[in-house]
Specification:
Layout: E1 2-8, H1 15-31, E2 36-38, H2 52-58, H3 65-77, E3 80-88, E4 94-101, E5 107-112, H4 120-123, E6 133-136, E7 139-145, H5 153-160, E8 165-169, H6 176-189, E9 192-196, H7 208-215, E10 229-231, E11 237-240, E12 247-253, E13 297-302, H8 311-320, E14 325-327, H9 336-342, E15 349-356, E16 359-366, E17 369-375, E18 396-399, E19 402-406, H10 415-423, E20 428-433, H11 439-452, E21 455-460, E22 467-473, E23 496-501, E24 506-511, E25 520-522, E26 525-526, H12 537-540
Parallel strand pairs: 1-2, 2-3, 7-8, 8-9, 13-14, 14-15, 19-20, 20-21
Antiparallel strand pairs: 1-12, 3-4, 4-5, 6-7, 9-10, 10-11, 13-24, 15-16, 16-17, 18-19, 21-22, 22-23, 25-26
Helix pairs in contact: 1-3, 6-11, 8-9
């Protein structure tokens, strides 16, 4: 067991005062027995600069008093300490750097932030290389920072390169960091995550009222969102700090649990990947190529139940009520012919799945019959022997109201699958699946919608925690840099959730396909095209 700590605090414009806070909080964590201590991002100075020259002047340099003091504290306490600072590089760049110091005070590893958020693009330079996985006495450690955890590629790459513990330093006001983006990275990769966020103003205190007024949000929403946490490989948050105020959260973790990548059904979540399919993730961004449908579209999850008695009547009534897309759980027993007859006289489309000729296919059905097929892409232990033939890519179907991708069964647990859908310009994803672990509906599918700006209609059989699926709508309100229709709630990319419970037969909601077009979470930061596409080599290794 290793005792770890996530530390949260506020910083300001005074570098000397910020250093004193860092040292005091390291002392506090070490005093509670922590052997691995994670501090927030931008510990040396608020992420607020007048110019690039100003940012470089105030940035840390290796061997300067600030970093020497942190290294000395790590040595004093015989602890590993990770923090985020701005760092002046010898080549003239200024980066947002994650630095890891060992129990002898030596610098064990550093990683420059690859994905910058909003105004960070004005005064910092993105990283040009992947960060290391550092083998230490407390485990194999990988580092990332804030916005790098709002997309999946960086943490996935660290896990594929052997990291057992991911160390995340944040500088975030978004409350969906703690509820969504942080825990999902643990669960999808089956690793530990230690995340340390800021509290207090993230902008100069004497300007925050004016800035908030210009953005049209209450000034308290421009404070760090806190809730620093430690997350287990199954996505369970084992320790979490409050939303506000300085805090040190401590947990004893069994690092070796991160070496078990096997789901309850026996599927290895990393070994079952198919890297040859993921090459579009490493391709140069091209932007959106076609317009999405306009307006709202009524969608529905229909769950026939055991024996699917009355299934076609449920589908018929749902179609006649105006649903344009109806998604059924995987392998629910309804045939394509039955679905086509059920929607006769309507413009509805039904998505269902079947196993035929050892392939598991998702079918797109209208009153005219089967319009398209999407073959399941990834193997899973629960269908071993039954399904041995897999698809060679993800197709997007053009419908009158937008573009639809179908993600079948256990393909839903792979972040790469949904990324492929986004890169193919899907607006809506239909997912006939079977949930088997709580994280899939607590954070997994929600994150797929959030990190790709996709609408997701997921229909499953009865799952854990009483949930069988969800309709996830991309919200109209998306970022502080656009006008909001409703009040700002601190949630930036979190989808609008309509849950599907185990006892539900029909659940309906509206989605807006056109909302999937805007992927700019902030000025200069695109969730999809802003991925570090040049640095995702680990995702493609082992092509098969």
């Amino acid at each position: 067991m290793v005792r770890v700590a996530a530390v949260q605090f506020a910083t300001g414009l005074d570098v000397t005062a910020n250093l004193a806070t860092c040292l005091r909080m390291i002392d506090s964590a070490a005093g509670q027995g922590a052997e691995l201590i994670v501090l927030p991002e931008f510990c040396n100075h608020l992420s607020w600069y007048e110019s690039r020259e100003h940012a470089r002047r105030l940035a840390c340099r290796h061997g300067d008093p600030f970093l020497n003091a942190v290294a000395g504290r790590a040595a004093r306490h015989r602890a590993h300490v990770k923090l985020g600072v701005t760092l002046a590089r010898e080549d003239g760049r200024v980066t947002g750097a994650s630095l890891l110091y060992g129990p002898d005070g030596a610098l064990l590893g550093e990683a420059d932030k690859q994905v910058l958020m909003g105004a960070e693009n004005d005064h910092l330079d993105p990283g040009t290389a992947v960060g290391p996985v550092v083998a230490t006495a407390v485990g194999r450690l990988g580092m990332y920072a804030c916005m790098e955890g709002v997309i999946s590629e960086i943490t996935r790459g660290l896990a594929l390169r052997g990291a057992q513990v991911l160390l995340n330093s944040l500088n975030s006001f978004a409350v969906d960091e703690a509820s969504l983006h942080v825990p999902v990275r643990a669960a999808e990769n089956r690793v530990w995550v230690i995340a340390a966020n800021k509290v207090g103003p993230l902008l100069p205190a004497d300007r925050i009222e004016l800035i908030a007024a210009g953005l049209g949000v209450p000034p308290e929403w421009l404070h760090g969102a806190g809730e620093s946490q430690v997350v287990a490989p199954d996505g369970t948050v084992v320790a979490r700090a409050p939303r506000t105020g300085e805090a040190v959260v401590v947990a004893d973790v069994d690092v070796a649990l991160a070496d078990d990548k096997v789901r309850p059904d026996g599927t290895d979540v990393l070994a079952s990947r198919r890297p040859a399919l993921y090459r579009p993730i490493a391709a140069e961004p091209r932007g959106r190529t076609a317009p999405a449908g306009a307006g709202s579209v009524a969608v529905a999850v229909v769950r026939p139940g055991a024996g699917h008695g009355g299934a076609t009547e449920l589908i018929r009534r749902t179609a006649e009520s105006g649903a344009e897309l109806i998604v059924l759980p995987e392998l629910c027993g309804v045939t394509a012919g039955e679905a086509a007859r059920a929607v006769r006289g309507t413009t509805a489309h039904v998505v269902l799945s079947e196993i035929r000729d050892r392939a598991h296919d998702g079918l797109l059905v209208s009153a005219e019959g089967v319009l398209g097929r999407q073959r399941k892409l990834h193997p899973s232990a629960r269908q071993a022997g039954r399904v041995t033939v897999f698809g060679d890519g993800l197709e997007v179907f053009e419908l009158p109201w937008g573009r639809l991708a179908i993600i079948v069964g256990d393909d839903t647990i792979f972040p790469e699958t949904f990324r492929l859908a986004a890169l193919a310009d899907a607006d809506v994803v239909a997912a006939p699946f079977t949930p088997s672990e709580p994280w899939e509906l607590q954070s997994g599918l929600l994150e797929r919608a959030a990190e790709n700006r996709l609408n997701v209609v997921a229909a499953g059989h009865d799952g854990p925690d009483g949930l069988a699926g969800a309709i996830l709508a991309a919200p109209r309100d998306f970022t502080l840099w656009t006008a909001w229709e409703g009040p700002f709630t601190g949630r930036i990319s979190h989808p609008i959730v309509t849950p599907v419970k185990n006892d539900d037969r029909v659940v309906c909601a509206d989605v807006h396909p056109a909302q999937a077009v805007n992927r700019h979470v902030s000025r200069g930061t695109d969730l999809v095209d802003g991925r570090p596409w040049r640095l995702v080599g680990a995702l493609l290794e082992g092509d098969r």
